[in-house]
């Protein structure tokens, strides 16, 4: 596999970042992960816009303009002959300079997993809605990884965070939606969550589908009392939830989740999209 390191196309295992760099030593960096399907990256403009906002928030100089970034993404996909997978943009600090690394890999979500759905649990850590990095896709991802690994040990696919005020926030690598009596609910950004690209797209779909959406502060009990739950992120898009701890959902009855998955496909993935 090839990687793009500071504009140079090289073998991925030759892309080296200094151990003394702040990006390696302290996690001073940002990243974006894009889905690739049919040989093209999805929502490039939206990811680049968020990447640009993160650079501004952390006083990191923007490495490439939008068209140059789009060109770099296309170049790497073509070089690796990637039909289906993910592309990661990583931008890290190295003293007075910054390193930009683009890599690709396979997508870990086979189609069969959507039929069985995710099993989720509650995270032990709490999201801080008052911290700057909560709203930036930074390289400080250790807490997320720890919670996801602890969930996996218990047989779950994802862990859901409450924030420090006791409200639902987000998953370790997902945004959270749930349905009750035909109404779709999702925690507001102010609850301490990363505003995901797919979260934004699904909210748009909900509005266009004339479904009712409630965005706000919700408790764990609201999740337990829900009729459907689904998660979103750029790699897996819309993932049905089959189980929360000991509560199970019949995915055949998840009418709204199935409808949104179908409408998302026709809007962004299917013929004419």
What are the defining features of this structure?
15 strands; 9-stranded mixed sheet; alpha+beta; 2 domains; 273 residues; 8 helices; D-amino Acid Aminotransferase, Chain A, domain 2; 6-stranded antiparallel sheet; D-amino Acid Aminotransferase, Chain A, domain 1
Report on the structure:
The chain is of the alpha+beta class. It folds into 2 domains: 2-105, D-amino Acid Aminotransferase, Chain A, domain 1; 112-269, D-amino Acid Aminotransferase, subunit A, domain 2 (D-amino Acid Aminotransferase, Chain A, domain 2, Alpha-Beta Barrel). It has 8 helices and 15 strands. The strands form 2 sheets. Strands 7, 8, 9, 10, 11, 12, 13, 14 and 15 form a 9-stranded mixed beta sheet that branches. A hairpin with a 3-residue loop joins strand 13 and strand 14 (237-244). The model has no long low-confidence stretch (mean pLDDT 95).
Question: Which helices and strands occur, and which strands form pairs?
Answer:
Blueprint: E1 2-5, E2 8-11, H1 22-25, E3 29-37, E4 40-41, H2 44-57, H3 66-80, E5 84-94, E6 97-105, H4 112-116, E7 118-127, H5 142-153, E8 158-163, E9 168-171, E10 175-180, E11 183-187, H6 197-208, E12 212-216, H7 220-224, E13 228-233, E14 237-244, E15 247-248, H8 255-269
